[in-house]
Amino acid sequence: MISGDRTLRIERTYRAPAEAVFDAWTSEEVIRRWWRTERGYETSEAEVDLRVGGAVRVVMRDPETDAEYGGGGLYTEIDRPNRLAFTWLWDEETRRTLIEIDFEETDGVTTVRFVHSGLWDEEAVRGHEDGWSKVFANLARVLEPE
User: Rounded to the nearest 5°, which phi and psi values hold at 107?
Assistant: First the structure.
C-alpha cells in the first residue's frame, strides 16, 4: 500500500472453480457460512438481490455480547463468474465505499483480486485489511474443506 492511498488491495488464490468462488459471494446461504471477522461470530443476516442496482447486505453478530456489525450497498457490476462490484456502507458510517472483485480461473484454481476503495484514511485501510483477511481465510475453509 502506498502512503496516503485509501484503497485496500488483496489477492487470494483458491483451489476452486471461478463459478464456485463467485457464487460464494452472491449466495445468501453460502455467505452465512463465511462472512465474519472473528471466531465465534455468526453471520446473522445475508441478503442478496443479484442484479445491477440490487441490494446486498451482511450483518455479523457477536453472540457473547449480542453486538452486530453490518453494512450493505448496491451492485454496480455483475459479470458471472469474472467480476462483481458493489458499493458498501457500514451501518455506523456515513462514507460509502466501493468493492470490486475480479475472479480469474486457471486449471480449476481461482485467483481473486479484491479492491476496496474510498476508505477514509490509512487507519481505515489497515483495519479493513485485518478484517477482510480474516473473512478471506473463512472463505478458504468453505471453498477448500480438508
Answer: 55, 45
Parallel, antiparallel, or unpaired for β 8-14 and 97-106?
Answer: unpaired
Identify whether the C-beta of residue 24 lies closer than 8 Å to the C-beta of residue 142: yes
**pTM confidence score:** 0.94
Neighbours of 88 (CB within 10 A): 21
CA–CA separation, 44 vs 91, rounded Å?
15
User: 92: which residues sit within 8 A by CB, 6+ positions away?
Assistant: none
- In the chain, how many H helices and how many E strands? 3, 7
Q: How many CB atoms lie within 10 A of CB 5?
A: 12
Per-residue pLDDT of 88-102, as tens digits, reads 999 999 999 999 999
CA-to-CA distance for 84 and 18, rounded, in angstroms?
12
Integer Cα distance of 1 and 18 in angstroms:
26
- The three cell numbers of residue 31 are 455467505
CA 6/CA 134 separation, integer angstroms = 20
Tell me the C-alpha distance between 72 and 57, whole Å.
4
Contact criterion met (CB below 8 Å) for 143 and 15: yes
